[in-house]
Amino acid sequence: MSFQKARFGDLVTFDHAHLSWARFDGSRFEKNTRFHSTEFPTDAAFDRTRFAGQATFVGATFSRVDFTDTEFGGATFFRAATFSGMTVFAGARFADSAVFDDARFHALASLAMMVFADSAVFSDVEFLDTATFRGTDFQGKALFGGSVFHRRTDFTHAMFGRSANFAGVRFVDGVDVFPARARLDVREEDVNRVWPEKWRLLEPEPPENGKILNREGIWGTVFDTTKFGSGEQ
Length: 233
What we know:
The chain is mainly β. It has one helix at 225-228; strands at 7-8, 12-13, 28-29, 33-34, 39-40, 44-45, 50-51, 55-56, 61-62, 65-66, 71-72, 76-77, 82-83, 87-88, 93-94, 98-99, 104-105, 109-110, 115-116, 120-121, 126-127, 131-132, 137-138, 142-143, 148-149, 153-154, 159-160, 164-165, 170-171, 175-176, 180-183, 193-194, 199-202, 219-224. Helices cover 2% and strands 33% of the residues. The longest helix has 4 residues, at 225-228. The mean pLDDT is 95.
């Protein structure tokens, strides 16, 4: 089923549909879009797609799926979605909240270089294979509480601009985080950070050393004490 480079001007709903070889790459959805409980039993392509309104994939099931460089303009929901094959969101941008709570990733999850302008909710998610958030920019809240990562996980070069909650997260096969960064010059009431037990946030000394080219603010470095020590003098 091919909708390559199609333009959908009105509300679109594929709720409970069974879409084989779905091709939406390069398409534009101008209004709200619904794929509630939709089944994608074969490869699905959404790369370079533009969702201007709300996009709902609640309870959807995917085989292999590609969302490379996709733009989500409204609130986006992948709650309780199942990703059975390789999943790629590399370079995807979310202008509003993105909700993945209770999702399951059974194969490689490439979530690198994504941009979350608002909240990114990955609470109680299970990653059964390798997951990478390398270079992903969390400009709003980054919520991972209760999630389980069964294989090696990569958060290196990730950026945490506001709150980050990793309460109860388990990294079964280890995690790489250095040199992730977290912004320091934000109002205390706007930030609530709960890092994994062995992670620490190192503040730059002097603060000017925490500036990053083409980014506002002062940034500290997040690292794993099991690899680099406590960072305390």
